[in-house]
Specification:
elongated; five-stranded mixed β-sheet; 19 strands; alpha+beta
Length: 374
């Protein structure tokens, strides 16, 4: 059952934005935004099958027969949403709600397709509805970037599964296994120990494959002395975790230990610098400075981190271009890395919540270089 107080708070935040902008209504179709606003968990999938219209005093939700009963079960009979599955196309349905509400300024979420936007405007015109239709520009994403207590608790739960999976996989890995075999074991463990889903396609990249930050697991056979980069996460009630750990099969070389130490120092320097109000690119630069000073600046090319929540990549970001302050309540990853082409890669990633005076990681797995396969 949805947390009615949390959802009421989210609706209130959206309505405050609407009042500030002068919007009479907002039209939403993006599934993560609808999950956030309604609280209907384990309902949304890959289909863009739902449309919501929000006004100052109305909440309408249109779906179809594949989801209607699930919404009713999740939200309960006393929910504030007027849910229907009327056999009408979404643009015409939205236009009818706008007419019912006598809305004159109707903001359309910028994730909607151009086809929906054009058809909605055409439906309004054919019904003699005169309204302005500004586009929202990431406004819902910005609202979602500040997590409430329920969201934070769900991500803590997801990370508990993810941490337990790391303990398990460290006892499983042996030389002679393939990346794909390790991936299957890791994912099966999460799905059989509390995860509802996987956060994303698991990365298991061993030896030289670890130098490719988004390598996909394959037939590579892990050997003694290989580093293995594992980037993965558990999903729990639609919220995600995200963690990367790099382990070594047998004893690491002196160089591997030295590079690992650089990445760890970069990670921990960034974590110590985070607090509400910092600018994302400034935190990214902390990692760049540490890694560059150690002589590996050319081998760290991606952003330091990103928001996590209902989607695995959300706002805000720690990267070269994010020039906005990071708010308290944002849940963000810290994941510096060094990638030496043809040889090995190392990444160390936690995720956690930004507070007024610091950064509280949800991740509990060690930052030490773990040796496996003994």
């Amino acid at each position: 059952m949805a947390d009615s107080l949390a959802c009421a708070g989210r609706v209130a935040r959206l309505r405050a934005l609407m009042s500030e902008r002068g919007y009479d209504a907002v039209i939403l179709r993006n599934n993560p935004d609808l999950r956030w606003l309604t609280g209907s968990e384990r309902t949304f999938d890959f289909e863009t099958a739902h449309t919501a219209v929000v006004t100052a005093d109305g909440l309408w939700l249109h779906t179809d027969s594949r989801y209607y009963n699930t919404f009713r079960e999740r939200l309960g009979e006393d929910c504030p949403w007027r849910i229907d599955m009327d056999p009408v196309d979404a643009p015409a349905w939205a236009a009818a709600r706008v007419r019912e509400a006598c809305a004159r300024v109707v903001a359309v979420e910028d994730t909607c397709t151009l086809a929906f936007f054009d058809d909605f405007r055409a439906a309004c015109a054919s019904s003699s509805i005169a309204c302005l239709t500004p586009r929202l520009h990431g406004d819902i994403c910005d609202l979602r970037s500040v997590k409430d207590a329920e969201e934070i608790e769900l991500m803590r739960r997801a990370q508990e599964v993810t941490d337990a999976a790391f303990d398990h996989i460290c006892g499983f890995i042996r030389a002679g296994q393939t990346e794909q075999e390790i991936r299957v074991e890791l994912e099966n463990y999460m799905l059989s120990h509390g995860a509802d889903e996987l956060s994303f396609g698991t990365i298991v990249a061993a030896g030289p494959n670890g130098a490719n930050p988004h390598a996909q697991p394959g037939p590579y056979v892990v050997g003694e002395g290989d580093l293995i980069v594992m980037d993965y996460g558990a999903g729990f009630r639609d919220y995600h975790s995200d963690m990367t750990r790099t382990v070594c099969v047998g004893e690491p070389s002196d160089e591997q230990r030295a590079v690992y130490d650089v990445v760890r120092r970069a990670h921990e320097a960034c974590a110590a610098a985070v607090r509400a109000g910092v600018v994302g690119r400034d935190i990214h630069q902390v990692a760049v400075d540490v890694i560059t000073e150690a002589g590996y600046g050319d081998y760290f090319g991606h952003g330091l981190g990103h928001g996590v929540g209902l989607e695995i990549h959300e706002r805000p970001n720690f990267n070269r271009s994010w020039d906005r302050p990071v708010p308290a309540g944002a849940v963000v990853t810290i994941e510096p890395g060094v990638y030496l082409p043809g040889r090995f890669g190392i990444r160390l990633e936690d995720f956690g919540v930004v507070t007024e005076d610091g950064y509280e990681p949800f991740t509990r797995s060690t930052h030490d270089l773990v040796i496996v396969g003994r």
